[in-house]
Design a protein that fits this description.
Layout lengths: L6 H11 L39 E3 L3 E4 L2 E11 L2 E3 L2 E3 L5 E12 L5 E2 L7 E6 L4 E2 L17 E2 L4 E11 L4 E7 L6 E4 L7
Parallel strand pairs: 1-13
Antiparallel strand pairs: 2-3, 3-6, 4-5, 6-11, 7-10, 8-9, 8-12, 12-13
Length: about 190
């Protein structure tokens, strides 16, 4: 099993993922009232904070750290569909996909799963503080690690994360954490997402 991915390979995987990019001016809109409870998750249940927040804040292109894990968000895209093994996945009515191209560096002392549970804890956060989980079949996106593949200690891997969000959601940030720590935040406002 090949666990090395170059930046060029990640670019090819991202190209396969981004079948139809959304274009047009950015807009701020109210949250989609038709979003189902499975689309967003509250962090911590009742009384949870509503804004993306940690003391560790980063921008797209920076090496964001959380514990022994370092992740760089290289690019952010809105897409109408994604390529997966065996076909194309569409988000359905009232939704869109947001894709993040990342490079993860494992500074821990154990291998990390990147596409299947248990994996890095992460969520996309809108301007209302709603958190969206990554899609369940990340390992089916061309160029992404296989489900049983682990990122070795000291190694890095380029891959694509995809999230299904309401069309009207204004995406503000991406959060991730290593082993239950307080999450680090990467600001996405002003990127290629509205």
């Amino acid at each position: 099993m090949n666990t090395r991915t170059t930046t060029a390979t990640a670019g090819l995987g991202a190209a396969a993922l981004l079948l139809t990019a959304c274009t047009g001016p950015s807009r701020t809109a109210a949250p989609d009232a038709k979003a189902t409870p499975g689309d967003a998750r509250a962090s911590g249940g009742a009384g949870a904070h509503s804004a993306p927040g940690s003391s560790d804040r980063y921008e797209v292109g920076e090496n964001a750290r959380n514990g022994s894990l370092t992740v760089k968000v290289r690019n952010v895209h809105e897409v109408d569909a994604i390529a997966v093994a065996g076909g194309t996945k569409r988000p359905g009515a009232g939704a869109r996909y947001v894709a993040l191209e990342i490079v993860a560096h494992n500074g821990t002392k154990a291998g990390l799963r990147l596409t299947c549970p248990p994996r890095i804890a992460d969520s996309l956060v809108d301007d209302q503080g709603r958190r969206y989980d990554v899609i369940g079949d990340l390992d089916e996106i061309p160029g992404n690690p296989q489900c049983d593949e682990r990122l070795r200690p000291g190694a890095e891997k380029a891959m694509v994360l995809a999230y299904r969000v309401p069309k009207s959601a204004t995406i503000a940030a991406w959060e991730f954490s290593d082993s239950g720590r307080e999450p680090s935040t990467v600001a996405l406002r002003g990127s290629a997402v509205r």
